Amino acid sequence: MLDSQDPNSSVASTEADITDTIAAAAQPDQWASQKKFEREKHINYFKRSLQMLPGVYTSMDTHRMTLGMFALGGLELLGVLEETVSEANRQAWIEWIYSQQRIPDPLVGEDELSDKNAGLYGFGGPFSGLPFQDQSVAEGYQGCECGARSTVYDTAHITMTYTALLMLVLLGDDLSRVAKEPILRSLRKLQQPNGCFVPCITDPESDMRFLYCAAAISHILNDWSGFNRQTALQFIRGSQTYEHGISQSMYQEAHGGPTYCAVATLGLLGGEALGDQKTMIRNEGEAEDAFEERKSQAGFVDKEGTRRWCLLRQLTGFQGRTNKVVDTCYSFWVGGTLATLGSMDLVNYECNRSFLMDTQHESFGGFGKWIDAYPDVLHSYMGIAGLSLMGEPGIRPMDPLLNISKRMQERLYTQSVFWRSS
Ligand SMILES: [Zn+2]
Question: What separation in Å is there between the alpha carbon of 371 and the centre of ligand 1?
Answer without folding.
Answer: 12
